[in-house]
Design a protein that fits this description.
Number of domains: 1
Largest sheet: 4 strands, antiparallel
Distance between the termini: 20 Å
Order of helices and strands: EEEHHHE
Number of helices: 3
Number of strands: 4
Radius of gyration: 15 Å
Structural class: alpha+beta
Strand order of the largest sheet: 2-1-3-4
């Protein structure tokens, strides 16, 4: 997920399988241009698929909302804020890994 400085969110489709799972594998390679202030969020499906029950998922819309709300904070604090929001949403029930990496483009 790419959150541009102006708040526009761009979804990037997964281009490969789990990193490190296979010794030899092929994947698509693509490039994107990051501008100063853009946030790059790389996350596992455990973040967006977190759920307190069998119906509602945290979803990408909530993830984008949380990223926008915390965009001015340091990357480490954004990770903490997003993962805390996911855990609150799912009422502390964790059925999958919660992996999130945040990178901010600088000038």
């Amino acid at each position: 997920m790419l959150l541009r400085q102006d708040g526009t969110a761009e979804r990037r489709a997964a281009a490969a399988t789990v990193v490190g799972l296979f010794e030899n594998w092929e994947c698509a390679v693509a490039g994107i241009e990051l501008c100063p202030g853009d946030l790059l969020a790389i996350f596992s499906d455990g973040v967006t698929e977190a759920t307190p029950d069998d119906e509602a998922e945290y979803g990408e819309a909530r993830l984008i909302e949380e990223l926008r709300a915390n965009r001015g904070r340091p990357a480490e604090e954004i990770v903490t804020a997003v993962l805390s929001a996911v855990q609150r949403f799912s009422a502390g029930v964790q059925s999958d890994d919660l992996t999130l990496m945040i990178a901010r483009a600088r000038a």
